[in-house]
Specification:
The structure is a single chain. 40% of the residues lie in helices and 0% in strands. By secondary structure, the chain is mostly helical. The radius of gyration is 30 Å and the shape is elongated. The termini are far apart.
């Protein structure tokens, strides 16, 4: 009985061709329209760096 095995990294031509065909397919089944968002955005910058450091020191000393 002869058992042929392929080591890790061995070249597999069929697998290479399968992957090449898969990579060459282009998916054109998607919506090409861009979504337009309208509205406003507000940011809360929070406390100043000094206030945050003071709060950190307060927590650390507890």
């Amino acid at each position: 009985m002869v058992v042929l095995t392929m080591s890790m990294g061995a070249y597999d031509e069929e697998e290479h061709e399968r992957r090449e065909q898969q990579a060459s397919k282009v998916d054109t089944d998607f919506d090409d329209e861009r979504t337009i968002y309208e509205g406003t955005i507000e940011y809360d910058s929070g406390d100043s760096a000094e206030a945050l450091l003071n709060k950190f020191e307060e927590i650390k000393s507890s």
